[in-house]
Amino acid sequence: MVAGIPLSFPVLLAYAAIAGAWSTFVVPHTEDADDTPALMAAISDYTSDASIVFEANTTYNVWSPLTFPLLTNVEVVISGNLTYPTSIETVQGYVAAANYSGAWFSFTRGNNVTLRGNTDPDWGWVDGHGQQWWDLMQQTNRPQGWLFKDVTNVIIRDMKLYKPIAWNFATTGSSNMHFFNNIILAGSDNASFPFNTDGFSAGGTNMLFENNHVVNGDDCLTVVSGAKNITWRNGYCEGSHGLSVGSLGEGGQVASVENVLCENTIMNRTLYAARFKSWTGGNGAAINITWKDITFIDVMFPIDVTQNYWDQEDGPPPSSSSVNETHIENFLFDHFVGVINDTPGYVEGSCVTDPCWYYVPGATGKEAVIFDLYPDTATNIVVKNLVARTLSGAPVAAMCNSSTISNDVGFVCWNGPYVPTPG
Ligand SMILES: *[C@@H]1O[C@H](CO)[C@@H](O)[C@H](O)[C@H]1NC(C)=O
Ligand SMILES: *[C@@H]1O[C@H](CO)[C@@H](O)[C@H](O)[C@H]1NC(C)=O
Ligand SMILES: *[C@@H]1O[C@H](CO)[C@@H](O)[C@H](O)[C@H]1NC(C)=O
Ligand SMILES: *[C@@H]1O[C@H](CO)[C@@H](O)[C@H](O)[C@H]1NC(C)=O
Ligand SMILES: *[C@@H]1O[C@H](CO)[C@@H](O)[C@H](O)[C@H]1NC(C)=O
Ligand SMILES: *[C@@H]1O[C@H](CO)[C@@H](O)[C@H](O)[C@H]1NC(C)=O
Ligand SMILES: *[C@@H]1O[C@H](CO)[C@@H](O)[C@H](O)[C@H]1NC(C)=O
Ligand SMILES: *[C@@H]1O[C@H](CO)[C@@H](O)[C@H](O)[C@H]1NC(C)=O
Ligand SMILES: *[C@@H]1O[C@H](CO)[C@@H](O)[C@H](O)[C@H]1NC(C)=O
Ligand SMILES: *[C@@H]1O[C@H](CO)[C@@H](O)[C@H](O)[C@H]1NC(C)=O
Matching Gene3D superfamilies, A to Z (predicted)? Predict the structure, then answer.
């Protein structure tokens, strides 16, 4: 509009109609060819007020990464199936390329973006063909699945991911995200382990995760530094490494995590249920984190908090002379009910070294809670309403060093039987 020249009413109406126009782009499909280039070629016409539709009854070949430009008021609808390349080398080539965006599907900046799958059992799946990667223990140049980087106002619903190669949803720097009714199936057909198939990584602010169903081989949810106001509820996690916060403070980094609530979730045959991890020598703090109403079924470590994390397969713990640790404050574990897997000789599938990366010196395998803390850095860490038994029937234990805590943690802080206290 040219300043100073008042527009007539009809002209204004016409202008509003154009500005309000919604367009729909049905992504074309060509048999036996990569469907990414055609979408990328057309997308500049559909970056605002548009629907981008992968139509039903079609299997799209996403044989090269889909790097979305900045989108405003756009929904991406996955009604058909999407398939990654079946060639491992092809995927690796794109991941290794200098212009790789950081994920097979990436969204950067933008506002009001919806990614919507469906509930049809036959269509709407994104197939990563991960099994062959797991069978070969192929871990070179694996792609992240979906990256939302610095995007505001995002809805991700009804997505269905089948055998992803590795990590699934990442959210670095994004805000106001609502993830619901998503399914991630990263279970292996045999003993080959689906390494690093993390479900959701919360790396931004104001995120709500509801009714997500995850079967995988790493964290179900991982809350990373920079996260604030994260709620996860009504979930199901199977085979995973838990509802995790961390790891924080690697190499002395300054971490910040605040206001996290994980509630009403079933943890089925997972390694951990609730987990916090920070590296020795970290800085910063994790404050106000609650896990509540957690049902755990045959879980090895229902509650595990460590300020002393390291990859044990890389050798002995780093000898840190640092006086600093990532501080933890106001952690609550409330109403955990379930069964600890203390089957003698049981080894979780991600354990491929001796000792296992998750080995805890001195643990008996019957611990409902392990607190591995540094003195003067943990404030108000409490467990309450925990009801656990072991598969073997042996008494439930705890691991805790009383010289590292400053409050009644809700159970007798020792390496011994689990005995509740007023908390
Ligand atoms: C998909 O195929 C089914 C079965 O052939 C048909 O009933 C349905 O209408 C098709 N849907 C679309 C959107 O083409
Ligand atoms: C956000 O995008 C949706 C489509 O996904 C659209 O229906 C809605 O009007 C948009 N919101 C605003 C405020 O423009
Ligand atoms: C990356 O580079 C390749 C080769 O130059 C090119 O074909 C492709 O379009 C580029 N991808 C992006 C997302 O820029
Ligand atoms: C869609 O993909 C899923 C997962 O790979 C598969 O089980 C399903 O059979 C596919 N649908 C069709 C119609 O091929
Ligand atoms: C899983 O099956 C694949 C294909 O049959 C095979 O190559 C692989 O060795 C199997 N993995 C294990 C651990 O048995
Ligand atoms: C926290 O996030 C939720 C979900 O995105 C949002 O509705 C709520 O307003 C946020 N709370 C604060 C205090 O920002
Ligand atoms: C320890 O913390 C202090 C105060 O925050 C900071 O100045 C110092 O750089 C930290 N030291 C290391 C090794 O991270
Ligand atoms: C702690 O976090 C919860 C849930 O995210 C939030 O509702 C509450 O306001 C936070 N408390 C404080 C003191 O910030
Ligand atoms: C737990 O997982 C097993 C398969 O590993 C399944 O058979 C069982 O039904 C699951 N339990 C629940 C409560 O979902
Ligand atoms: C308990 O913690 C203190 C302080 O870090 C440490 O000196 C001591 O060795 C720990 N005791 C055990 C049994 O780990």
Answer: Single-stranded right-handed beta-helix, Pectin lyase-like
Q: What is the mean pLDDT of residues 344-360?
A: 93
Q: Which atom of ligand 7 is nearest to the CA of 282?
A: 14
Among candidate residues 247, 241, 243, 311, the one with its CA nearest the CA of residue 282: 247
Polymer length of the chain: 423
At 387 the three-state DSSP class reads strand
What would the pLDDT profile of 227-281 be if each residue is shown by its tens digit? Answer: 999 999 999 999 999 999 999 999 889 999 999 999 999 999 999 999 999 998 8
Amino acid letter, residue 250: E
Is 213 part of the annotated catalytic residue set? no
Query: Please, how many CA atoms are within 13 Å of residue 4, restricted to the half-sphere of its CB?
Result: 0
User: Which atom of ligand 5 lies at the shortest distance from residue 191's CA?
Assistant: 13
Beta-strand ranges (E) seen in 23-79 are: 23-26, 48-54, 59-61, 66-68, 72-78
Distance CA 198, CA 154 (A): 20
Structural contact between residues 370 and 360, judged by C-beta atoms closer than 8 angstroms: yes
Q: How far apart are CA 343 and CA 365, in angstroms?
A: 8
Closest CA to 175 of 115, 109, 245, 232: 109
For residues 109 and 116, what is the distance between their CA atoms, to the nearest angstrom? 18
Residue 133 CA to ligand 5 center (angstroms) comes to 11
Tokens of 255: 């971490």
pLDDT of residue 410: 98
pTM for the structure as a whole: 0.94
253 lines ligand 10 (CB under 6 A): no
pLDDT in tens, 129-181: 999 999 999 999 999 999 999 999 999 999 999 999 999 999 999 999 999 99
* Dihedral sign of CA atoms 14, 19, 21, 23 in order: positive
Q: For ligand 1, pick from 24, 57, 122 the residue to mutate: most ligand atoms within 8 Å of CB.
A: 57
Nearest to 68 by CA among 24, 23, 115, 30: 115
CA-derived radius of gyration, the chain: 24
Distance (Å) of CA 400 to CA 45, 100, 244:
59, 45, 19
Domains in the chain (CATH in brackets) are 9-218 (2.160.20.10)
Are the beta carbons of 357 and 351 closer than 8 angstroms?
yes
